[in-house]
Amino acid sequence: MKQEWLEGHRARKRFGQNFLHDQHWIGRIVRSIDAKPEDAIIEIGPGQAALTREIIACAGHETAVEIDRDLAAFLRTQFAPEALTLIEADALTLDWATVLEGKRLRIIGNLPYNISSPLLFALMKGAHRVIDQHFMLQKEVVDRMTAEPGSKTYGRLSVMLQYRYVMHKLFDVPPGAFVPPPKVTSSIVRMIPRPVESLPEVDLEVFGEIVAAAFQQRRKTLRNAVSAFLTEDEIRAAGIDPTLRAEALDVNAFVALANAAAAKKA
Questions:
Q1: Closest by alpha carbon to 189, among 152, 233, 141, 232?
Q2: Which residues pair with 191 in a beta bridge?
Q3: How many domains does the chain have?
Q4: Is 20 flagged in the annotation as binding?
Q5: 82 annotated ligand-binding residue
Q6: Ranked by mean pLDDT, which of 45-49, 68-72, 243-247 comes out on top?
Q7: Residues 10 and 90 in one domain
Q8: The domain containing residue 216 runs over which residues?
Q9: Is 239 annotated as a binding residue?
Q10: What pLDDT, on a 0 to 100 scale, did the predictor assign at position 179?
Q11: Residue 17 pLDDT grade (very low, low, confident, very high; cuts 50, 70, 90)
Q12: 15 and 133 share one domain
């Protein structure tokens, strides 16, 4: 019955569905996550349960967030309620600061390529409750997430996420590991939230605005890119060379700019 259902379900483009099926890669991902029975695991987009089965075998239970009603119905036929708690919802609209309230979370998932960046930003709101996150994403996205200052892939996503997380790219997963095979290579990333007490103090709204403006036109120098927020002298007073481009600045430099802009607004 299970096999008939799987063959009858077509991946839906609007949900960005590509189903992992290769046992070698499933096993490698599961070993990287290293789920334990005491873990409160949330899987985003369990799909046809390729990872779900293995994680439940290790941890005994997981909570899953699935937006596709047909897949949610399928999952209910495959797992007892004590093994799988299903949240039928859009992961983008969940309140990640309160879901599974009172528990420290480990979040995993094969994230749809079409919503990966908005979802990563949405998850930041609950980062104080998270032990770690293991995600499969488009290789290009993971390369941007983990990029270092000075590289071509370093940008807004790099700065915003690296402020909040320590990130490690683990390995690539080829298109052939999926049905249907995507046109791109995927990668596994591990994201560990930085302790709240270690985060540089900054107005996150201003920080986000400064970072977005700085990278909006990468070839502009800072004195031009963030001129709506700070003058050349104010950039220099923050300890930053105004002739630099955004890609040359590390996270702490952007924090310094944001703090200068916030002080100016106060």
A1: 141
A2: 133, 167
A3: 2
A4: yes
A5: no
A6: 243-247
A7: yes
A8: 204-265
A9: no
A10: 81
A11: low
A12: yes
